[in-house]
């Protein structure tokens, strides 16, 4: 997969970014804009590794609205969004924790957000499996 920057498809004062095979039909939308792509990769490569442990998992919901519910829940816990993001990824940060999310491709029946998160201490990760806990957001 290679990253393409489509100058003919504007997206929030930028252009659409997508991954695509060179000689194929498979297209994957991981970020809506180039700025969003850079911010997601910067948090993944430089912010998340600063914490002592990591949690990975997925959240799913029938229909739409999972991103908005996640944003409200994390905002209530002191997380901020370092940049404005579109429907394909979300970034959340606070001094002692961070979380990045990616959404399933458009057209899926179930919306699923895949996330990687770094809680503030290793005790917060002890014995937990984020993908096995099922609580409403």
Mind explaining what this structure looks like?
The longest helix is centred in the first third of the chain and has 14 residues, at 34-47. It is built from three helices and seven strands. The strands form two sheets. A four-stranded antiparallel beta sheet has the order 4-7-6-5, with helices on both faces. It has helices at residues 34-47, 66-76, 122-125, and strands at 2-11, 14-20, 27-28, 55-62, 89-94, 97-103, 110-118. The protein has 137 residues and is of the alpha+beta class. Mean pLDDT is 76; it is low at 128-137.
Along the chain, the helix and strand elements come as EEEHEHEEEH
Q: How far apart, in Å, are the first and last alpha carbons? A: 33 Å
Radius of gyration: 16 Å
- Low-pLDDT segments, ≥5 res: 128-137
**Strand arrangement, major sheet:** 4-7-6-5
Q: Portion of residues in helices?
A: 10-25%
Enumerate how many helices there are, as a single number. Answer: 3
The outline comes out as globular
Percentage of β-strand residues: 35-45%
């Amino acid at each position: 997969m290679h990253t393409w920057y489509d100058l003919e498809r504007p997206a929030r004062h930028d252009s659409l970014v997508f991954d695509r095979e060179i000689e194929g039909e498979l297209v994957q939308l991981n970020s809506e804009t180039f700025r969003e792509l850079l911010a997601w990769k910067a948090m993944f490569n430089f912010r998340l590794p600063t914490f002592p442990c990591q949690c990975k998992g997925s959240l799913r919901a029938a229909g739409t609205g999972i991103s908005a519910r996640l944003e409200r829940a994390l905002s209530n816990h002191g997380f901020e969004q370092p940049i404005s993001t579109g429907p394909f990824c979300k970034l959340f940060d606070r001094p002692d924790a961070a979380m990045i999310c990616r959404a399933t491709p458009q057209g899926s029946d179930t919306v699923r957000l895949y996330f990687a998160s770094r809680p503030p201490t290793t005790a917060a990760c002890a014995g937990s499996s984020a993908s096995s806990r099922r609580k409403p957001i």
